[in-house]
Amino acid sequence: MDATSQEARAWQLLEEYAGRFRPDWKDSMLAHAGIVLDLASFMAGLVEGDIDMETLRLGAILHDIGRTKAERVVEHGVLGGEILRAEGFPEEVARIAETHLGVGITRDEAERLGLGPRELVPVTPEERIVCYADNLLFYIKDEERHELRDRRAVVERFRAELGQEYAERAERFMESVEALAGERMAELEDYIRNYNGMLKKEGKRRR
Ligand SMILES: [Fe+2]
């Protein structure tokens, strides 16, 4: 299958799972995946060195597919990996789903959370960039809209939810991914500003 039809299949699969198991979340899941896809692809273009764009794009579309079947939010990465392997997607794509929660789940944490003794930390550039992009995307529940924020907002959210230690780890992770883009990070900031403007306009149109 060529890259375009793989992507079409990825969208189809996400729609199918969301439609079947979480119809109430379907629209917002598809919108979330589309924004993470745009942001991760743009970020990947700023990075020097080899990025497998097909893996990154499929992973960005499918990273949350496990949410459709997860009873506990924390298990949706592992479930996503299982679904993607069963559906015949490459191991690299399954790993993006498995490793994208927070800034990763260490083996110790995974054991404590009942996910088994497995290291679920983003390591490859494709895994790290999708995880990074996913973190920047916030969902504002009251207003039912998506918004991209910056590293500082991400760190603050982790501080509030998971405490100081995790916040520091998140900051190191986010900085390490930004270092991949180096000076070109300014381009990402512009991209995010424009993208948020577009999201706002779209939101207005919908209402
Ligand atoms: Fe997720």
Can you characterise this structure?
It is a single chain. By secondary structure, this protein is mainly alpha-helical. The protein has a single domain, classed as Hypothetical protein af1432. Helices cover 68% and strands 4% of the residues. It contains 10 helices and 2 strands, in the order H-H-H-H-H-H-H-E-E-H-H-H. Strands 1-2 form a two-stranded antiparallel sheet. Helix 2 packs antiparallel against helix 3 (53-62), helix 2 (26-46) runs antiparallel to helix 10 (185-206) and helix 3 runs parallel beside helix 7 (125-136). The radius of gyration is 16 Å and the shape is globular. Residues 63-64, 76, 100 line the site of fe (ii) ion (FE2).
**In total, how many beta strands?**
2
Strand content: under 5%
What does the radius of gyration come to? 16 Å
Strands of the biggest beta sheet: in what spatial order? 1-2
User: By helix and strand content, what is the structural category?
Assistant: mainly alpha
Q: Supply the CATH architecture.
A: Orthogonal Bundle
Overall pLDDT level? 95
Which descriptors apply to this entry?
207 residues, mainly alpha, two-stranded antiparallel sheet, globular, binds fe (ii) ion
Structure, briefly:
The chain has about 210 residues and is mainly alpha-helical. It contains ten helices and two strands, in the order αααααααββααα. Fe (ii) ion (FE2) binds near residues 76 and 100.
